[in-house]
Design goal:
Rossmann fold; two-stranded antiparallel sheet; 20 helices; about 60% helix; about 10% strand; alpha/beta
Length: about 625
Amino acid sequence: MPTLESTTLPEYSLATPDPYTFRIGVTGHRNLKDEPAVRAAVDKFISRIDSTLKNAAENPRKAGSTDNALLRYFDFWAVRATKMLWWSIPLTPKQVSPERIVPLKWRVVSALAQGADQIVAEAIMNGVHGELLPVLPFKSNVYERDFETAEEREHFHQFLNDADQPWTAWDGESPSSEERTTAYRLAGERVVRESDILIAIWDGEPSRGEGGTAEIITYAIRKEIPVYWIHADHPDSDPKLLSAGDNGSQNEGDVPDTAKGLAPHYHQLCAYYRDPAYREQECRAIYDRDLGYLAADAKTAKLDSTTMYEAIRNRFAQYAYADHLALRYQSFHLRSTIAIILFAALAVTAAATQLLAFAHENWTITINQMNWVIALGHMEWLIVFEIAFMFAAAALYRVSIRENWHEKWLYDRYLAEWLRGLMFREGLGHASAESNSIRELLPFYEGPSAWVDHVLSSDLANATPAPQPQDLTQLKHFLNIAWIESQGNWHGGNAEKKEYRQWCIHATGFSLFAIILLCAVLHLNHIGHEKSGIHLYGLPEVIAIFAVTLPAWGGALHGISHLMDYDGIAQRSKSMHVELGNLARTLDEARTMEEICETAKRAGELMAVENLEWMMTLAHRKPELHV
């Protein structure tokens, strides 16, 4: 393995989380029948959310579950049985060490109108020490005219003094009636877009004009922003979660009692940083190995260690952590899913063998003790294995779903590959942590959760800009051998490996088909039957067992092939190998820094698009029970 002297490599340290900002928007009425009761209801609701999120971050196993009792009971024993036989699987920890807890910050997004807007803003700013993001329909000197008394105007300006720079929908001085209505609507919609959840202080009646409370609630539901409704006229009643119903109607549901339901992005971010699959020794090995390769590439390119290499190597902790988790969850997901498929085929094999070969051979268990004889009954012994295989498949399936191995593998790999490209592009000053621009190229893919963008944005915000190297030849050489050519060569090798594995599956499938066809020919010619001239003891049963069970094994092979998507990944890797090779040659021909940056940008976008397409293609290949 290529390495430099230990003194030149930065010491490994675990990636630590940056605070997560939980954004709460508000819409509601100005005039409230019982303002003190509404304040009390809002304070109680905010306190409830705060307590739920903090408890889930510190004690994840106590966060609650929405599963029904029977499924929860089965999961309890499935996890323990699986852990006994597969001791290395990670399980959600009982408690999280303080350094791995994601700090929670609050932000209220409010138009600061009298009534509901200011009540929610005060509750968050005073109750949980949140920050304020004002979203105003007009400039403050115009908007203050909406407040009737000098005291109300002074209170409004106090909010602005404690807030970030406000966003305004309309910048004129004298809005017309139509412009005022439009500005209120645009401000309400902006509040929704800037929020993770929306608190609505609403009387349940339709809007009295454009941009009214009911209209903003409908807009939020259409944008799939959770809306929590506190009834303006009956604030003592329990808050409700509003969601889209049939024919444009709205459904009312209970407020979730888990962090996963209240703030799914924060829940996923906490799960990432406290991940039980983390093994420091393995993560450190990835860090040292890949950083050693990077150091060797910098040395080969004769790149000054104070330039790009210095900036990249200081970012390796987050990359090594994501890469380490991705490798572990890939192993857990693939091994468990393949085992589920094989257990299903084994169950069929056990049942067929019992019925066709041992249908009349039973055995009895008896217990003799103190002159008592207890007959436990007759049991077809292979059926025990069939039941065991089915229970094993069901247990593995539930564990993989409960622990979310499939999604964690995809998200962690997606994040690791984004970080890899980000490190190189950042040194050129062209890094962007927002993957939304890449998703716009593939609008039919939903893309990963927002917590991934949070990690990327935090990583980029903490970066130290690197000085640009003076020698462009060294820079081009380093970018090629450490990144573009390296990734192209990986894709070339990956395509060959996947094609070979797919060939092995096809060859095995054809072999199974040939055996099944041979069994059919033997049946047709009565070979092994009593009326034939050739009779071997047990041969008819063996032929029948093969004829029944081998199609099940063929189906298992097909399931594995579908799961791994060898053909699709091989073709994509072939294309990536060619495209990255072309970009490597383009980079070699670059003569200016602008051309180098443009080529690096194209390479980064190409890898990002392939990364997203890979993730979303496999996202639909979730674990299934094969029956």
